[in-house]
Each structure stands twice: as structure tokens, then as C-alpha cells.
Amino acid sequence: MPRHVLTRRELLEKCAAYGVLTVAAPLPLPALARLWDEQERRSPTPRNELGPFYKKHSPDSNQMRIAGEMGMPLEVAGRVLDTRGEALPHATVEVWQTDHFGHYDLEGYRYRARLPLDGEGRYRFESVMPGHYPDRVCQHIHYLVTAPGHKPLITQLYFATDPVFEGDPDKNYKRDPILLSRELVRPVVLSGDPQTIHAAVTFELCMERA
Amino acid sequence: MLRRLLCGAVLFSIGLSARGQQLQTRIPAPEAVRFAVFSADGTRVAAATVKNRVVAWTLPDAKMRQSWEFGEDRPRALSFLPDGKSLLVGLRSGAVQVRDFGSGEVTRTIATGHAPDVLAVSRDSRWLAETGNDAKIQIWDLHTGRRQSVFSPEFGGTESLAFSPDGTILASSGDDANVYVWEAATGKHGKTIVELSLMSPSVDFSADGKRLIVGNNDGAIHVFEMPSGSLLRSYSVQKFPAANVRVSPDGQKAAAFYTNADSGRSPAPVILWNLIDGTILQRTDSTSFNVNGGVFTSDGRVLFMTASGSDLLAWSLE
């Protein structure tokens, strides 16, 4: 991966923004740059297969849940960042998933969307907990994230509450042969009473520079 | 992933009295089969089994001719050379072996640097195109074992590769829903066909190289003009993705082997299309999705395989 060289001005701005300047001012700039690299570098989100059901031209929306359709309401939110933790508000995030019964819509765009991002690279969408696609082990949501100057990020979001994990995703996540990274299994916050229960998940997307 | 579905689904059984298809040969396999391929003339079959073995038979006598064991190394792709005398075995360890069908000897090993899972050979047996888990497409000279070119689609993996009849053009299709046309010798990108919204699991050229036939997950067979890449026709959208499309030697027909998108274990048809007027010449609906190794043989037959327990069943369209 090409190393991004900070300009003196960028570096000073970042240090000021993170409160580093006051404690680190005596350090020379190269040392500051190293400090910045060490402190701010994040690991890119692990990649996962794109799968055979990606469809171009998904509608711009953050509301995939369809009134009256079966399924536990699900809200997913997160940010799109680079490996330095900087927001990528101009990224394009496409998501697609099965409905509650494990069916992908190939004819139309049900449970497919291109998500709007705010100025801080934040996204949020409403959906339902995906069903179990018969030829896959785990419930999952597909992501394709693109941003100028960055490698396309192809990944999938999994849920710690998936019955396949039997309550122990650390131990059982490899039951799905496509799921190679525990990091993609995200905790699920369940709230509401049994009649109105809904799920919320946070999934951060970290992109590598091209 | 569709390749994985195709490989896994052959493990499930079907009935033997199927309308529109005729059982040609029952082939006893030593264990359950993951996937299988025919030679171009339909007289040889090879299969990769769940015990990481590759077994090869002749037809119609169903006599086992070779059995190769790969231990912990999993065969991920098979392809006969056009004359049927050699078999290519793509291995998870990152190699393609060329094995002589008669002697069983390895005549060449190509270290691919990734686990190859799609193989295609030019009609003159000179070039091998393969792609693997790092999404790179590589073309190798089978005479020298040297890599000729390497290139990649925009993003995602590649599901299907096909050489033009003269071996100068390679078409690829994959997860990003694009179809790419490459100059085989150099890997130079020639054309990206972006008209389709869904992934195309299968591409094949017409006999004269002037048409590219694409089976798509939208259920249609699309015909593109080469080299312009213009869409000429699309044939009847079916309920099922067209997982494998093979063009007849005379270029007049195409055999489409469909799959059930909701479950690879559910039935899906095999349809013989007239490529000239888009009519359906033959159709069978009774196969389960475990249709595997579909081929349009050099003498014009449509053959495909299913599995019943550890038996491979070779069928033809009636």
C-alpha cells in the first residue's frame, strides 16, 4: 500500500485536532509523523466474498424495511473511514440481503439499497434481520463500498445472535466456510418487548488506499 | 459462490425416469462426487470427490481408467483438453496439473500462485486461462508453462472464462456483473459489457467467434455481437439463473443449464434454445439443480451429469 506522506500543514492540523500538539510540540516533525502513523492506523475491514447476487443500480435509500413484511426490524449504522480514521463522506455504500425467508430479489430491488452518507461518513439503514439463505450457513448482509483513491471494499456483516453460533461466535464462527474473520460478526442489541422487539448493529467500514 | 453451490449440489439425488432426458450411463464412483466434467466428444468423464480424489472413466462402458488421490490438497477445478487425451486439475495448493488420461502421468505442473477454480483452454490447446481466489485472471502457455498475461476485473471474482475459437480473445464474467473482453496474448483490456445488472455465471463464443452467448442470473440468455459488445438479443427470461450455457458446434443452438437461486437442491430446467429465432427446441424440468458438467458435444449431443448416492448419472436430452 502506498504510504501517504503528510504535509507539514496537514500534520499540524491533525495534531491540533487531536490535542497532540500541546504535549508533543517539542518533538520534531518526523517523530510526530511516526507518532501519528502509530496512533491512528486502523486495520482495514476484512474482505468477504461478493457472492453471486450483486445487482447494479440499487436505489438510493436508507429504508429497506417494507411495511407489513415479516421479519425482526433491524437498524444498522456505522461510519466509512480510511485506515487513518479519516471519514470518507464521498464513498458509495451498496448493501443487499435476503428477506426474512432467505430469498434474494433478482427481479427487482427489494432489500437492496445505495446508502446516503453524511458529512462525517456516517450511514444508517432500516431493514429486517435477513433469513438463512438455503445454501449458506449464516445470516448476512452484503456490502460493496467504493471511494476515490481507495480499494473497493467487498465484505459481509454477520450477527452474533445467529442461531448457528449457539451463543458463542468466538468458538463457532467457522461453521460458515465463507466466514473467515471473527471481526465480521457484530454484536446485536435487542430491545423492546417480545411483540415489538428490534435489533440494532454497528458496523464500521475501514478502507485501504489504492 | 455459485461455483460452490454447483459443486455441492451434485451430492443430492434425483429420480431416474425423467421426462425429456434419457439416462445414458450409470457411473459407479468410489464416494460422493463434488463436481464432474465431460470431454468435448462426450466419451470421457472426470469427477472430483469429497475425499480429494479425481477419478476418470470412459463412456459408454463406464470403466474407471484413472484414480488420483491428492491427500489434503483439494481439487477445485477440472477441464479436459479439447482432444480429451489430457485432463487439467486445479488444486487448492496453487497449481494446475496436466495429466495424461491414458498413463495417468503428470506431464506438466503450473504454479499459479493462487487456488484456481475456473479453467478454460483454447481450442488449439495452446493457452490455459485460469482464475482463483485472488481474483486475478492468468493466461499460460501450455507448451512452455510460462505465464503469458495477467489481469483483473474491476472488482470481485470471476465465474466463467471462454476463449474465442481462434484463441485470440478471452471473455470473462464475474461477481461485479460485468462481462469483459481481453486480448489473450497481452491481457490488454478490450471491452467491458456493462448492460447487464446481475452476474453472468457463464459465457461461451459462437463457432465463428462473432457472437458471445451469456447466461445471466436474470434468467435470460443474452447474445452480444463481437468485437463491438453490442447486445443483439435476449431470450425468454426464465424463473431461474442460467448457470451454464454451451453453444452447439454449428453455432445454431445453445444448451442452458439453469439453477434454482433459492436452493441448489431444488429442481431447475435444462433448455435447448434455437439461437436464430429464440424458440425452445427441447426442455426438461425434472432434473434437480445438481446438473453438472453440461456439455454440447462435438457431434451435437447435449450431455449432463447428476448424482445418485455415489453413482454419477450421465444423461442426454432426448
Sum this structure up briefly.
The complex is a heterodimer of chains A (210) and B (318). Chain A is α/β, with parallel strands linked by helices.
Write the layout of secondary structure elements.
The complex is a heterodimer of chains A (about 210) and B (about 325).
Chain A: H1 8-17, H2 21-24, H3 29-40, E1 73-82, E2 92-96, E3 112-115, E4 122-128, E5 141-146, E6 153-159, H4 169-172, E7 185-186, E8 189-191, E9 198-202, E10 205-207
Parallel strand pairs in A: 1-9, 1-10, 6-7
Antiparallel strand pairs in A: 1-4, 2-3, 2-5, 5-6, 8-9
Chain B: H1 2-9, E1 21-28, E2 33-38, E3 44-49, E4 53-58, E5 63-69, E6 75-80, E7 86-91, E8 95-100, E9 106-111, E10 116-121, E11 127-132, E12 137-141, E13 147-151, E14 158-163, E15 169-174, E16 179-183, E17 189-193, E18 202-205, E19 211-215, E20 221-225, E21 231-235, E22 242-247, E23 253-258, E24 270-274, E25 280-284, E26 292-296, E27 302-308, E28 311-317
Antiparallel strand pairs in B: 1-28, 2-3, 3-4, 4-5, 6-7, 7-8, 8-9, 10-11, 11-12, 12-13, 14-15, 15-16, 16-17, 18-19, 19-20, 20-21, 22-23, 23-24, 24-25, 26-27, 27-28
Question: Describe it for me?
Answer:
The complex is a heterodimer of chains A (210) and B (318). With 210 residues, chain A is α/β, with parallel strands linked by helices. Chain A is built from 4 helices and 10 strands; from the N terminus they run αααββββββαββββ. Chain A has helices at residues 8-17, 21-24, 29-40, 169-172, and strands at 73-82, 92-96, 112-115, 122-128, 141-146, 153-159, 185-186, 189-191, 198-202, 205-207. In chain A, the strands form 2 sheets. In chain A, strands 1, 4, 8, 9 and 10 form a 5-stranded mixed β-sheet that branches. In chain A, strand 5 (141-146) and strand 6 (153-159) form a beta hairpin. Chain A is globular and about 60 Å long. Chain A starts with 7 loop residues before the first helix and ends with a strand. The model of chain A is unreliable at 1-25 (pLDDT under 50). Chain B is mainly β. Chain B is built from 1 helix and 28 strands. In chain B, a hairpin with a 5-residue loop joins strand 24 and strand 25 (280-284). The relative contact order of chain B is 0.16. Mean pLDDT of chain B is 88; it is low at 1-17. Chain A binds chain B through residues 49-57, 102-104, 106-107, 134-136, 144, 146, 152, 154, 178, and chain B through 1-2, 4-5, 8-9, 154-157, 159, 175-177, 194, 197-199, 201, 217-219, 241, 261-265.
